[in-house]
Specification:
44% of the residues lie in helices and 19% in strands. By secondary structure, it is of the alpha/beta class. Strand 5 and strand 6 form a beta hairpin. The structure holds adenosine-5'-diphosphate and guanosine-5'-monophosphate. Guanosine-5'-monophosphate (5GP) binds next to strand 5, strand 6 and helix 4.
Length: 206
């Protein structure tokens, strides 16, 4: 027996660590997951699609939604705004879907204050050198942007004690298995299953 609600899963980690790659594997293994599509003001990368990877907005559009309180959290990261739209999240959690927010640390900490029941996972690279190589290998950012992202990573790494779980992405399959185990275990935590168990006991004939 597990709980009937979905989990609010927050995944952070330095740009290029492999969050998208590892989460992709987890999504292949499970059919109860939803990847929250964030809004951003950054430029669309080659291969990205509006409404699929992000909702790509102008700064004016982004700030309008923020003023109307449409974001669960938002942050400025490497000169661009990013934010989680409220409408992406809670209606799905109520239906038993695990909603994944792949967001940076400032936003994750805003969510943690409002929703301590969330599951906060930080993905680490096996080394700083590997992180640089992955960012270069991905080939989506120019050198200036890569340096900015590596600088941001140094600060982010000082914040990892604020997360519930740390997963090292050395081998993609292993990291995905670890994430999957975290999801399984979180569904069985006492506060989440307590009501369901009480109901079962109440309906049991003695
Ligand atoms: P993020 O979503 O964290 O920015 P990506 O998933 O885009 O990172 O991965 C960045 C690059 O690193 C991609 O080219 C991806 O193929 C590669 N990558 C991801 N995980 C690994 C791994 N465990 N070993 C080697 N390369 C990896
Ligand atoms: P990228 O530009 O590489 O897609 O993302 C840069 C950083 O922004 C990553 O760390 C990513 O997790 C984070 N990010 C993506 N969407 C959001 C969001 O909605 N809110 C916050 N706070 N960060 C986000």
């Amino acid at each position: 027996m597990t709980d009937k609600k979905g989990l609010l899963i927050v995944v952070s980690g330095p740009s290029g660590v492999g969050k998208g790659t590892v989460l992709g594997k987890v999504f292949e293994k499970r059919d109860d997951m939803y990847y929250s599509v964030s809004a951003t003001t950054r430029e669309m990368r080659e291969g990205e699609k509006d409404g699929v990877n992000y909702h790509f907005l102008s700064e004016e559009e982004f700030l309008k939604i923020k003023a109307e309180d449409g974001f669960l959290e938002s942050a400025c990261y490497c000169d661009n705004y990013y934010g989680t739209l409220k409408e992406e999240v809670f209606k799905r959690i109520d239906k038993g879907i695990n909603v994944v927010l792949e967001i940076e640390v400032q936003g994750a900490m805003q969510i943690r204050r409002k929703h301590p029941e969330g599951v906060f996972i930080y993905i680490l690279p096996p080394s700083y050198k590997a992180l640089r190589e992955r960012l270069l290998g991905r080939g989506t950012d120019d050198l200036d942007k890569i340096e900015k992202r590596l600088e941001a990573a140094k600060w982010e790494l000082t914040q990892i004690d604020k997360y519930n779980y740390l997963v090292v992405n050395d081998i993609v399959e292993e990291a995905a298995d670890e994430l999957n185990s975290i999801i399984e275990a979180e569904h069985l935590r006492t506060p989440r299953v307590y009501d369901a168990i009480q109901e079962m006991l109440a309906n049991d004939e003695i």
